[in-house]
Structure formats: C-alpha cells, structure tokens
Amino acid sequence: MKKVIYISCILLLFVFDVSSQNIIKIDGFFNDWNTHFNLNTYVDDSTDSQGIELLDFSVCNDNDYLFIKISCNTEIDLTEQFYNPAEMMINIDADNNVSTGFYVNNIGSEYGINFYDKFIFDDSDPNFVDTLSFYDLDVIPLPTYSSDEFEIAINRTLLSDTICISIREKIGNDFMPDNGDKFTYIFDNCSSVSTTPIDFSKNNPRNLRLMTYNVWSNGLINNSRVDKHRKILTSVNPDIVTYQECGNTSYNDVLNFLNTVPISYPYIFPDMISGNLTISKYPSLQSWQVADRIDAELIDLPDSIYSTDILILNGHPPCCSNNQGRQENFDALIQFIHDAKSVGGVIDLPINTPISFSGDMNLVGYSEQYYTILNGTISDTITFGSGGFPDWNNTSLKDQICYFNEQNIAYTWDKSNPSVGDFPPGRLDFIFFTNSVMSSDKSFIISTEHMSPSLLLQNNLIWNDTKEASDHFPVVVDFVLPMINPLGFEGSKFNKKQIKIKDFLGREVKKSANIPLFYIYDDGTVEKKIIIE
After folding, report:
1. 208-480 is classed in which CATH architecture?
2. Contact status, residue 243 vs residue 279, Cβ threshold 8 Å
3. For an engineered disulfide with 533, which of 60, 444, 490, 513 has Cβ 3.0 to 4.6 Å away?
4. Where in the chain is CATH 2.60.40?
5. Fold of 8-186
6. What is the structure's pLDDT at 516?
7. Pick from 61, 83, 62, 90: which is nearest to 150 by CA?
C-alpha cells in the first residue's frame, strides 16, 4: 500500500508564490492539473476495492471555488447508470471539527455530496439533517460524459479556511484516505482567478463569427423569452447561428423574430423535423439532412474576402439515456464528412473546405460518442463504414473549449429552478472544426449571471438574460478562414521586393508546395500564390 499526502501548510513560501500563478480551469480536461506543481494530492492503495478502484485525488482552490480532481482505475459515470457501476461520494468537514457534523472516515462531515443520487447531505445543523441540491453549493463536475477522471468545483462560501475531505466509492466501499488517515486541506489560493475578461468584440472584422444556442422549447416564439433572445443575438452579432429546439418555429416565425433585430440575416434554413435552425448573413449553396437530428449547409462566403466556403453542420442528437440514438447520429456525421472529402456519394467538397459541427450534443452518457466526433471512430461500421480521422489532413477535429467571459468555467447547461435530484451543470454544447484549414481566434460562453455589471452594460445585457432565455448558454467562436487578402492590403503586386511569406493564418513560413501562401512586399501589398510541384 502506498499513500502520499502533501499538506499546503508545510510548503515553502517561494513555492507558493510561483504556483499561485497557475490556473485550474473547470472544463473536463486535466492538463492544468498535470502541470501544476503545488497540488495537495493523496494516492490510494490500488488493490483495496472489490469494485471500482479509487486511485488518487488532488485539491486546489481560488478565491471562489474549492477544486477536487478524482482518478479511478476505469471509466464510470458520476450521475447515471453505467456498465461499470459506481456511486461516488465526497464528504467535507467544513469547519475542521470532528465533533460536529456526520462522523465518517475520521472526519465530521457537514456536507456529503452524493453524485449518483444527485443531492447533498447537509449536516451543518446538529438538530436537523437537511438535503440540498447541487446548486446550493454550486457543485460543477466535468466532464459530463463517462470518464476515469473528473474535476469538481465547489463554492467555498460555506467552507472554513481549513477543511478535511473524504472520498468514497460506495459499491466497492473504497475510501480515500483509508486506514485511519485524515486528509486536511488549508486553502492557499494555489489557482489564480482569471483577471482578463473576454469581451464581445472581434479581433478582426473579417473573422467569421459562429454562435450555437439551444433556445429551449421554441424560445424564439415564446412571448416571455423572445426579447431576451433578440438582445443576445444583437449583442453577439454572429455571422452564422446554429439554433436548436426550434421544431415548432416556422420560417415566418423566424422572420418575425428577426424583424426587430438591427442585423440582417436574409438566409434562414429551418428543419421542422430535427428542430434545428440555421440563420446566416450569407446564402447556402446546398443543404443536406445528415441524420435525423443533424443538418448541413454549405455557406457561400463572399469571394471578395474569403478564398473558400464553409460547411456548417448543426446537430442536436437525442438526449439523456438514449446512448444508441446519439451514437447513430455521430456515426452518420462521420460517414457524411468522409463522403464530403471523397469523390462521389451525396456530397463532394472542394479540398480543404473548412467544416464546423456545432450544437447541443447531449453528451451525457458514454464517452465513446465524444470520441466518435473527435476521431471518427464509427461504432456501427456495417451501416456507416469504417470511419477514420475526419480532418482534411487525417487528424482529429478540434474541440473548441470555451469559457465564461470572466471565469475559467466551461459548462453550457444548468437546471432552471433546480431542486434536490436535479442533474448538476454540464458541458452539452460544442463547436468542433477542421483545424488543419481554419483556426479559432476568440471564443466564449455567455452566462449573464456570471458577468460583471460593466461587461453587461457594455453589451446592453442584464444579469438574468441568459438565465431566463434558455437552460443552455450561447457558445461563440470567431474563426480565422483562408482569405483572398488576409491583411487587408490593396495595390500593385509587381516590381516589389519580397520580404515575407505567410500562410493563411498569418504565420511566417518557408515556400511549400501545393499550399496557398501570401507573399508580403516591402510596400505592404500582398500576393497569393500556390507553388505546384
């Protein structure tokens, strides 16, 4: 048996000062934990359970949250049934007093977070045991799909500066710590709060802004919410929007929604069957029904600016326990992308046409579905083909991880009017894209309740706009696409001294065959060339 406990109070001062510059981001990915060098970590015996083995946990915090990362020996689902059954519990001794709260594993627990049953035991009052929802302690576990690692943010308002933590997997009865050990954590702000807000403006007016947004049960025609949606659309000013849950929203309904928006969206593409709606400042060259819940539009971008068009895929696969339905939709997605990249079939795209797949993906079950999108690993190969990496250079799609404008948090859904038993916040809305031929310049999630008064005022929003508009949040990405004249220069391109060569993302490069390059001359003019070998 091997255990290691690092207690922050014995760390040297100079280590604390350096590590305080690290930032833990709650997004369901763990590189920030793996590179953090001032973590309080417990390593468990890996052979002391008859079920799921708990391997270790790490703890950190900033001014607002306690952060806990848990690792297991196999994949589980925190909040639902899974083929590897698990019931995870975190107990927190909020006052570092073993004689108060509920006694468990050598601590006095004021708060017991039961992930599987989706409630919190509140033992802070010695005369009354209460139950709370996840939202009462602002508990945020990610990823939302199954994993062998999870990170959890817990609001620290009700916690003292010194706490004790116990973690248990109930089915296998595995504890961390165990054998009489006790894990004490002293808050040391080992993670910094982001101080630079992401504003709504584009860094470059020629970047293509995409917004995806589940408007919640035809929100664009709901009299009590439609004005909120108009405000949000106006404040973001996207070039293309992929909406979901618009199944009863007709073309004329969309016209009525847009008639008081001070932005022109002349191109409207509703699908009453899938409930997906795409609106655009630019026309579509062709439309496809990819799957019962996925639609595609080949958007004709202005030839005076862009050297390519873009394929916009809008998805809203089935929810909740319907893992099979989601998997079928994503298998069909990968089949469609491979068809688009090859000659024949239902779609032929010019080589290196940018592709984006956005929407409410409902990734709340098996992680296999996420990796099908990312890596093209089709499950039903008999029906949908062998699959393979979907990007043009035979690599994975890019998952653009977006965060709140002023917090390092990445969930896109929470429960309206939550109560005990409701699911915690989750990351359900995604934007994937072919990052071999395009890139992301800026991205963010709009949650007005998490925005400062100054940022709200700047964008003509109020604190409850997104809270009342939908149970999802808008996700926004600014794409950098291949451009005819990426730096905005005009003029003669002859008899000039060449001083630089850049690719379409503005990176300085050497000459390369069969790739569009932009030659920068000493008078600031630009020429696009392709060297053919």
Report:
1. 4-Layer Sandwich (3.60)
2. yes
3. 513
4. 8-186
5. Immunoglobulin-like (2.60.40)
6. 52
7. 90
